[in-house]
Amino acid sequence: MTASSEMPRIDLDRPRWDQSTFIGRLKHFANLTDMRTVLSSDAKLNQARDLVTNYRLGSTPPGTTEEQLWYAKKLYDSAFHPDSGELQNVIGRMSFQVPGGMLITGFMLQFYRTVPAVVFWQWINQSFNALVNYTNRNAASAITTKQIGTAYVSATTAAVAVSVGLNSLTARAPQLLQRYVPFAAVAAGNFANIPLMRQRELMNGIVITDGNGNELGKSKKAAKKGIFQVFVSRVSMAAPGMLLCPVIMQKMERYTWMQRIQFLHAPIQVMLVGCFLVFMVPTACALFPQRASLAVEKLEPDLKASIQEKYGDKIKTVYFNKGL
């Protein structure tokens, strides 16, 4: 059955909002990272995928509305990898960043005083980050089990070493300064985790295309740019909650009523972090376009020469999926 004539044709391959503007990207990622989609069953997600696929082929159930199509696309984008089309594991999806991040970050900020607690929560956090980084990698660049293991161990070691080392250095420092140790460890862990988890892209390059999606080759410089942008986004995502929550908790803990409910300090901190992440996850993702670009002039000399030999000066800019 062909698509209903009552509804104008929608290009589902293009984002619903203009990706050239920050506001457009913010709307897009607020939609994509909506944590409510995590509750959708595999059956519902597969139905959404089938509706999107059939619509692209020109066949949809009669009476299908535009909003139903966009909602199906929302579910599809939230759960299926943009390169491989595979159903992503739930914990690694960007839509799980708020519930997963608020729990882990909240506990990291609460339990920072003892070495065992620091080691445990940094390990949990880097395990979570490794899964998110692997799930949202550029799937066109394969990564081996050995490389995944190396990235995971390296990032966890870096985060634990920084947190334990800073804990030792700040043992006699003001309590507020001690509360910032987890953020430093998270930044260090991400600095190691993201490039290592995506090292194949750095070694072999990632696929670049022209404005119409035609493949032009693989570029290491594009990979470097994409990975750097992802690192900035991830640190920006965590920064407000991890930098402001300690100040808020420090002031709240001075009140007698807060001192009486110490058993609720961890849940309160989790909820505070959650309030920040609800806004910061889409905001951080929206800092850079998902479909990143790079001027042909900035590509590797051999790749630049190859493109210019084949297309002349027709192609000025190339595009690639930077990952999330």
Can you walk through the features of this model?
It is a single chain. The protein has helices spanning 22-32, 42-56, 66-79, 97-110, 115-135, 145-169, 175-179, 181-197, 199-204, 220-252, 256-260, 265-285, 301-311, and strands at 206-209, 215-219, 291-295, 317-321. It contains 13 helices and four strands. With 324 residues, it is mainly α. The chain has two domains: 22-87, no CATH class; 94-321, no CATH class. Strands 1-2 form a two-stranded antiparallel sheet. One of its GO terms (cellular component) is mitochondrial inner membrane. It is a multi-pass membrane protein.
Summarize the structure in short.
With 324 residues, the chain is mainly alpha-helical. The protein contains 13 helices and 4 strands. α1 (22-32) crosses α12 (265-285) and α4 (97-110) packs antiparallel against α5 (115-135).
Strand order of the largest sheet: 1-2
Q: How many DSSP E strands? A: 4
Q: Which shape, going by the Cα principal axes? A: globular
Amino- and carboxy-terminal Cα gap: 36 Å
Give, in order, the helices and strands: HHHHHHHHHEEHHHEHE
Give the helix proportion (percent range): 55-70%
**Largest sheet properties:** 2 strands, antiparallel
Number of domains as seen in the coordinates: 2
Q: Please compute the radius of gyration using only Cα atoms.
A: 22 Å
Q: Strand fraction band?
A: 5-15%
Number of helices: 13
Structural class: mainly alpha
Low-confidence stretches: 1-5
Organism: Branchiostoma belcheri
Protein name: Sidoreflexin
Membrane topology: Multi-pass membrane protein
GO molecular function: monoatomic ion transmembrane transporter activity
